[in-house]
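Subgroup meeting minutes
Present: P.N., E.W., G.H.
Scribe: E.W.

1. P.N. recapped why we're keeping a running log of single-chain structure predictions: easier to compare across weeks, and new members can see raw inputs and outputs side by side.
2. G.H. added today's entry (548 aa).
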Amino acid sequence: MKKPYIVCLLFITLSFFNKGFLFSQDNNREELETLFNDWRQFEFPPLKKGAPDYSYETFRDRMPEFRKLRERLIEIDKSQLDIESKIDWTIIWAEMNGFEFNFRVLKPWERDPAYYKSVWMNRSDVPAHEGPTHHSVIEIWQYNFPLSVTESAKLDNQLKVIPILNEQAKINLTGNAKDLWIAGIRDIDRQVKDLILILNYPDVKNNQALVISINEAIESTENFLDWLKTESLKKDGPSGIGKENYTWYQQNVHLVPLTWDDEVMILKRELARAWASLKLEEHKNRNLPNLVPASNPEEYDLIANQASKEFLNFLDKEEIIDVKDFYREALNEHLGEYIPEDKRNFFWITAHLDPKPLYSHFFHWFELAEMDLNPSNNIIRKEPLLYNIFDSRNEGVATGVEEMFMQTGLYENSPRSKEIVYILIAQRAARGLGSLYAHANLMSMEEAGKIHSEYTPRGWMKTEKELLIFEQHLYLRQPGYGTSYITGKYLFENALAEYSRLNENDVTANLKDFFNKLIKIGNIPMSLFHWEINNDSSVISQIVPGLD
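Output recorded in log:
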């Protein structure tokens, strides 16, 4: 007679404990999200005269509050979190490491004049601007000209910050990083030119208040530029952060489980593989006619539109990804335009021959369209991760799919286009290798650029010097970004390999399923994607404390 009662009691007890466990999970998730919001609010610096305050004294005085936030994170019981929340915990941990590293080593507000660039004319093709940026940048691309009254007032207020920040920069910039300093002058000079361009935007000249603010920003930036040029004569120090710092940063901030030496080995291997594969492909195609570049705007528009259709139809027909309508719209906004031969940089040389390899890399724009139109419900993953932590994910995938789409048959009707894919890989490996030597202070930025140029096939990095300077400068400013295309590709391929091994006998675990999960999980470091999709934290457990 007592057995049913015992069974019922047991059921109630188990339910209670199960509910208690779930409540504990929910409680910890709520605590994690609250901490995340507090952290992001803290990460934005206090204002001084209306501009973010990057003075050493302010950073120093805020460090006790930062340490309290980090202690709150460490105290969260990760054993009560599910995989997604454990990964989100790791994201916050990495961002906090980025803040600490910036204060301790990178110090962009002290070493990097380009940090004070305020005006951005175009959207980046990754979740946030590549490289360190200050907290009050002006996204001109977000405005619609002619401006509404509200937009005009907003832009006017933003422009008023530029003179204040420029004056602050003259105090904060005490570093001796020669290459960063000299290359950064280009960015500030570019700001002058961009502000002048804005003066000619529709209806701007009829807005007296806005014209005054733009002219004051121009005058202030020109004055800042002159100061930078004068100070540059005194600069003679290294710009790299050193091997040890580089490794720490990659592992603890960008969550790339590699050392500086590991990355040198991987990039050398990828560079050799790309060159050898190119040679084999050229041999196989030796009796085929060479690709002929578009020679006028009409020809370029024709091949660009055709390439877009072929590319998207291929992805759809071959069941590689779900091609959404807004993917088509996103890609078609970035098809490019005809550029005269003597003005084409590396990437547009390739696009004038066959745009599809470059459009494969434009997987970026699919990801950004997802962010804009189908944002994550996970607040920790909804907005771009700080400190370019997304680079192994976004650049690694964009580079990886160039070859993956080729291997799945994209160029069966255009064998010569396969050569372009290997040239792209070689260029990414060469520039990343150069950036590694620059960060180790084994080479100057100029010397790193020579590797970048000399080891890119067909001399295609020698045609337009601006791209070379832009890329090597960015990679010196942002450790790990230059290698992320290849190291991220390596980690991406590892994730696919393990996913394939674990699901070898599951017919539903196909390529489309893999890419659908990739998009759903979001723009998190590739090591964390590997963890979530494969339930395997081993790629990161030796770096992150207390995961086991």
